[in-house]
Design goal:
alpha/beta, UDP-N-acetylmuramoyl-L-alanine:D-glutamate ligase, 9-stranded mixed sheet, 4-stranded mixed sheet, binds alpha-D-ribofuranose
């Protein structure tokens, strides 16, 4: 079976539930505070593993935070490519408001120590038929994409968090781009799914594009198909990690079935479960839970 190498961040999430996001000059008390495992990379690796994919996580954690690596191991992620660093792990400060929306500040820490040598070591046992998944929360993303493509892997890129320099990344080497509305708008200047794809397909004709739209579901576009999948309406507790859950389940099911419509359906169900719980990695459902959901 095809393997996935996920080159991604590993964070400690400090999650504060608040009545409203703190405003400039304001001091507020939170209703609750909890510490969770997180990071877009770690979340997506766990989602892939929960969905049944063979996933290797490559990344860095602080030597004092090996519990993050153990958690990934326990969830079925192969962590032999997770290295320890003498500096601190990455972390995130996350406010979650009464509507379940979040506001996140990240601190890169060890995630910003991805060297060319580490990229080379990590890719050594991957090749044609395997997938590289990467987000924009580690250093050296352009080189990760270039090296993986040169070695024959299919490249899946989630430009989150979106930064101006993404526009200069080698996006022509990306096989599947997964974006939310904000990321899509920053890349194309468009907000409507068909228009977003029209711009991207002009620039990168071979690229497949997945656009996630929260409660409006998700779209898949490539040269042959335009697919939409609605999402089930649920009571949102915390939307953190929903996009990561979607990506992990989408890619796992795409590898499993080679059918993007089936993968979209599976991924939207998983994301709908994720938002009903607090925390990122902690909210990612099991495959059994997703399969028990009715179709949306
Ligand atoms: O996508 C959610 C993640 O973004 C959180 O887990 C946090 O660590 C930030 O990376």
């Amino acid at each position: 079976m095809n393997k996935v190498l996920n080159f991604g961040s590993v964070n400690i999430d400090h999650v504060y539930t608040v009545g409203h996001f703190v405003q400039p000059g304001e001091t507020i008390s939170c209703q609750s505070y909890r510490r969770f495992a997180g990071g877009k990379g770690l979340n997506q690796s766990i989602a892939l593993a929960q969905a049944g994919a063979i996933v290797y996580h490559a990344g860095k954690v602080g030597a004092d935070d090996l519990w993050l690596k153990t958690l990934m191991d326990d969830k079925g992620v192969d962590t032999r490519l997770v290295e320890t660093s003498n500096g601190p792990s990455g972390h995130a400060i996350i406010q979650v408001n009464a509507a379940g929306e979040n506001a996140i500040v990240i601190v890169g820490g060890a995630n910003q120590l991805i060297s060319a040598a580490f990229i080379g070591r990590s890719l050594a046992n991957f090749g044609i038929g395997d997938f590289l998944l990467v987000q924009n929360e580690v250093s050296n993303v352009p080189q990760i994409i270039q090296s993986a493509h040169a070695q024959g892997l299919d490249v899946v890129f989630n430009p989150a968090p979106m930064t101006a320099d993404v526009l200069a990344y080698p996006l022509e080497l990306v096989d599947i781009l997964v974006v939310n509305e904000t990321e899509a708008h920053a890349l194309t200047g468009e907000s409507e799914p068909q228009k977003i794809y029209a711009v991207l397909s002009q620039r990168y004709p071979a690229m497949a594009v997945v656009i996630t739209l929260g409660h409006k579901g998700a779209y898949f576009f490539d040269a042959h198909s335009q697919l939409h999948q609605p999402i089930q309406a649920v009571q949102v507790v915390d939307s953190t990690g929903a996009g990561d859950t979607f990506i992990g389940f989408f890619l796992a099911e795409l590898i499993n079935t080679n059918d993007p419509q089936v993968a979209l359906a599976y991924a939207t169900k998983a994301a709908a479960i994720c938002v009903t719980r607090l925390g990122a990695a902690a909210s990612i459902p099991s495959r059994t839970e997703v399969e028990a959901q009715p179709p949306s």
